[in-house]
Amino acid sequence: MKPLIIIYGSTGTGKSDLAVELATRYNGEIINADAMQMYNGLPIITNKLTTEEQRGIPHHLLGSIELHEDPWVVTQFKKEATRIISEIRGRGKLPIVVGGTSYYLDGLLLKGLVEDQPALEGGAHPEAMLAKLREVDPVIADKWHPNDARKIRTSLEIYFATGRRASDIYAEQRIKKESKWASKDTAQTHGLGEILLFWLYAQREVLNERLDQRVDKMVRSGLLGETAEVYDYLQQRLAAGETVDRSKGIWQSIGFRQFEPYLTAVKATPDAGPALAKLKEAGIEETKAATRQYAKYQVRWMTMKTIASLQEEKLLDRLYLLDSTDISRWKQEVLEKGVELARQFLADEQLPPPTDMSDTAREVLAGSVERSNREDTPCRKTCDICQKTLLTEELWQAHITSRKHAKAVRGAKKRMLIPAHAVPSRSLVAVEPEPSEQDSKQHQ
Ligand SMILES: [Zn+2]
Predict the structure, then answer these.
(1) What mean pLDDT comes out for the span 100-129?
(2) pLDDT at position 173, please?
């Protein structure tokens, strides 16, 4: 048996602590899968465990790249993590991967997902990409909205990286989907061995409160000093005439961006006391807001993307949600349950159904599965009034019943641009469409 434990979880749920606890008990080594913690230094901004908290457990890919370097793309992470996993096994030890960067974990775990490859970055014009995609994979090209550069790029990258059409891969996955909750022996087709997955989850309001307190604590332990360090480093590089791509990497880390106006003002007018205090306070508030936003994004990624993929790959019965909502019960709910599950897993015993772990586990897992089973009906309709193309029947219905569409229709009627009978409208009910899974990515 080649066991592997992977720990997913939002920021602030205690996943790094669980990883250390498991490693201590089961002779493990830890692989970091948090893009920001891969940067060297800045322990407060990136929220790294201290050496003391690591308790002598080897941590890989922690602080292994320099500040000016680009964050790793998924394929690079997958390659390195896979190599380290087999090295750890070579030492007779248990690899434990823990991370906040969900697409790293997905990339490592799931087949057929080749996202965020750098191959086409820089200069590839959306229209040119679409033209190329129409050539190599017309089926998928027709599915994507012409403006959805990201999906077009991903499909092209899948083609270039695997030599296979994304449409074929998706069709295959669809066929494989038949049985939803898999048996134990199907869960090792990934070359990664036997897998046990944890998802540390906390209810949003409670987690938000905790994250706010954590930001205050970070400020007390010297967040601003670190931020100033990054700021000076950036200024030096700019002064040396270097080009710095600030759209990614450490420059996008939460806790740096938000304090930049303050730091700039400190340099310019160090004596402007009250004005500076105001900017500092704003920086703290924005850091809190961004942290909450990021935690929300992590949960949405899990419920909308990871769970659907795990289901397709018949790994969903290996995903254990541990409820970290009540921090005073962390020991019972997260630590003890996690330790016992890992013990059963390593002893090759029968594991309980993930939905039996807690009420929260049942609600959240069942809800996510239900959502991902709700098949969208593909279609492609364009609303000429709003100049909007919708790709599923559900989104189309949501659009033509939306307040926005109704408003556009009224405007168009007023301008007498269109005869009333030509208007697609069921605009008595105003329903805005749900936001799509195309979230803004802010932490990569
Ligand atoms: Zn419309």
Answers:
(1) 64
(2) 64
Can you give the pLDDT at residue 203?
A: 92
Domain 3-205+293-373 has CATH 3.30.310.50: no
Residue 384 CA to ligand 1 center (angstroms) comes to 7
Q: How far is the CA of 397 from the centre of ligand 1 (A)?
A: 10
Ligand 1 centroid distance, CA of 145 (Å): 16
CB atoms < 10 A from the CB of 138, how many?
A: 12
Distance 142 CA to ligand 1 centre (A): 21
Per-domain boundaries in the chain = 3-205+293-373, 208-285, 377-444
Task: Give the residue, 266 or 279, on which the prediction is more confident.
Answer: 279
Instruction: Summarize the confidence of residues 42-71 as an average pLDDT.
Output: 90
- And the tokens for 344? 């059963």
- For residue 385, the CA-to-ligand 1 centroid distance in Å is 5
Distance 396 CA to ligand 1 centre (A): 9
pLDDT for position 432:
37
pLDDT score, position 4:
95
Instruction: Please give the single-letter amino acid code of residue 266.
Output: V
Q: How far is the CA of 388 from the centre of ligand 1 (A)?
A: 7
- Phi, psi dihedral angles at 256 (to 5 degrees): -100, -60
CB count within 10 Å of CB 434 equals 9
pLDDT per residue over 433-443, tens digit each?
A: 334 434 333 34
Residue of higher predicted confidence among 78 and 129: 78
- Average pLDDT of the segment spanning 219-245: 88
> What is the spatial distance between Cα 11 and Cα 8, in angstroms, rounded to a whole number?
10
Instruction: Determine contact, residues 73/46, Cβ cutoff 8 Å.
Output: no
What is the DSSP-derived secondary structure letter of residue 354?
G
How confident is residue 308, by pLDDT bands cut at 50, 70 and 90?
confident
> What's the distance, CA 47 to chain centroid?
17
Residue 419 and residue 399: Cα distance in Å, rounded?
20
CB contact set of 14 (below 8 Å; sequence gap of 6+): 200, 324, 327, 330, 334
Comparing C-alpha atoms, which of 7, 82, 5, 69 is closest to residue 38? Answer: 69
Nearest to 179 by CA among 315, 307, 304: 315
